[in-house]
């Protein structure tokens, strides 16, 4: 059922971006968010890592020229680094982790490109629709 939810998320993302002209944080993100919809702490930690990634990226971009693939790669590396540091912390919340390794970086890239509010609203809507479709077909989400 895991693969079907990811594919459903991709289809919902495509339709959502076609009809609204807003990216729900990329193609794969709504599916992964829908899979983890039952774990709000994990989702909050993922969003926190994404927002922290944007802040660090903006600091770095003051001193370097980052665009295109380089910008995306830097955001992925920053988010993976933050996620790794969180996993080393001896607090219970750090043990929860984030959704995937790349998801916070993808969210950060889209937030930087089209704005935080627009991206998070689009992501929430597409993820909710994906989760609803998955539950309609009997999936048990985390």
Roughly what is the average pLDDT, rounded to an integer?
90
Distance between the termini: 12 Å
Q: What sequence of helices (H) and strands (E) makes up the elements?
A: HHHHHHH
**C-alpha Rg (nearest Å):** 15 Å
Q: Strand fraction band?
A: under 5%
Nutshell version of this structure?
By secondary structure, the protein is an all-alpha fold. 75% of the residues lie in helices and 0% in strands.
Q: Mind explaining what this structure looks like?
A:
This protein has 142 residues and is mostly helical. It is 75% helix and 0% strand. Helix 1 packs across helix 7 and helix 2 (29-35) packs across helix 7 (116-136). The longest helix has 22 residues, at 40-61. The chain starts with a helix and ends in a 6-residue tail after the last helix.
What does the secondary structure layout of this molecule look like, with pairings?
Elements: H1 2-20, H2 29-35, H3 40-61, H4 68-88, H5 92-96, H6 103-114, H7 116-136
What are the key terms here?
about 140 residues, mainly alpha, 7 helices
């Amino acid at each position: 059922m895991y693969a079907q939810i990811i594919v459903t998320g991709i289809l919902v993302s495509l339709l959502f971006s076609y009809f609204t002209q807003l990216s729900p944080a990329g193609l794969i993100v709504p599916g992964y968010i829908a899979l983890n919809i039952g774990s709000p702490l994990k989702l909050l930690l993922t969003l926190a890592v994404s927002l922290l990634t944007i802040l660090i990226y903006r600091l770095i971009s003051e001193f370097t020229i980052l665009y295109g693939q380089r910008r995306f790669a830097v955001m992925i590396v920053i988010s993976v680094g933050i996620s790794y540091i969180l996993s080393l912390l001896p607090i219970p919340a750090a043990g929860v982790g984030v959704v995937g390794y790349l998801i916070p970086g993808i969210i950060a890239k889209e937030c930087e490109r089209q704005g935080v509010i627009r991206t998070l609203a689009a992501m929430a809507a597409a993820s909710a629709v994906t989760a609803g479709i998955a539950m309609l077909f009997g999936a048990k989400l985390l």
